[in-house]
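2024-03-11 09:14:02 INFO worker-7 job=invfold-0412 stage=load source=structure_tokens
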């Protein structure tokens, strides 16, 4: 049984704690077969404070993960990735999008019209907006992200539900458009247990979306969005139960940008 955690952060993002080696040791302790770091790619000034590394720290991050990978060689594979905000920002040098040192890129959306909708400091903004317009804008961004075809994984697919704000209209037409593009490109969707630690108290994405993923032949992988070592592999038994219930028997692993599906 292969369980991987590809969504793991480092203190360079400004809101995670613990050195990378501690995350890897916890992955080993809970029986994961692989761990991948995907810290936040640099955002512009005014958006990145306490959220992402600085542009000049990108090479330091890569060297940090390469070092911990070498230190744990033979015990557990350690992969190198980035979580990249979409739309793209010039503060993340475009050369890294094709850098051969990087095993995978997670594409994520954390902003709608410049509003950090998943940040606790911005949660009151939901009361000033039409929630369905927020959902529509969010999924429209995911449609563009999927059509880019440059990402290997989509992170926390329905993150817009994080604080428990639910759409009142059906947005499955937009969701299907995202999934059609992902299936065409072979891009995986992350089954993220981070939502279980948030006010919504639910895995990303919701079970009905996971069922659609399987129906539309979209690959899946696993992520905890760990910001502390003890969060690595968080509630993965529940994630495995969810995807197996939808019909999945394999998950995606990545090495040097090549996807390989393995049994769960």
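2024-03-11 09:14:09 INFO worker-7 stage=emit residues=264
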């Amino acid at each position: 049984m292969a369980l991987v955690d590809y969504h793991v952060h480092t203190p360079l993002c400004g809101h995670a704690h613990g050195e990378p080696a501690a995350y890897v040791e916890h992955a080993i302790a809970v029986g994961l077969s692989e761990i991948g770091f995907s810290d936040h790619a640099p955002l512009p000034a005014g958006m990145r404070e306490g959220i992402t590394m600085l542009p000049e720290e990108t090479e330091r991050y890569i060297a940090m993960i390469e070092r911990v990978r070498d230190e744990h060689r033979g015990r557990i594979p350690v992969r190198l990735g980035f979580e990249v905000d979409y739309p793209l920002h010039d503060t993340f040098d475009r050369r890294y999008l094709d850098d051969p040192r990087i095993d995978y890129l997670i594409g994520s959306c954390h902003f709608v019209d410049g509003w950090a909708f998943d940040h606790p400091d911005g949660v009151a903004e939901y009361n000033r907006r039409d929630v369905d317009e927020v959902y529509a804008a969010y999924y429209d961004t995911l449609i563009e992200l999927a059509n880019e075809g440059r990402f290997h994984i989509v992170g926390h697919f329905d993150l817009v539900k994080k604080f428990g704000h639910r759409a009142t209209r059906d947005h499955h037409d937009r969701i299907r458009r995202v999934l059609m593009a992902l299936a065409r490109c072979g891009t995986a969707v992350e089954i993220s247990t981070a939502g279980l630690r948030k006010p919504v108290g639910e895995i990303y994405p919701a079970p009905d979306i996971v069922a659609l993923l399987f129906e539309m032949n979209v690959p899946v992988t696993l992520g905890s969005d760990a910001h502390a070592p003890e969060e690595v592999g968080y509630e993965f038994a529940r994630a495995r139960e969810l995807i197996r219930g939808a019909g999945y028997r394999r998950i995606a692993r990545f090495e040097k940008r090549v996807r390989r599906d393995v049994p769960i």
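2024-03-11 09:14:09 INFO worker-7 stage=report msg="The mean pLDDT is 97."
2024-03-11 09:14:10 INFO worker-7 job finished
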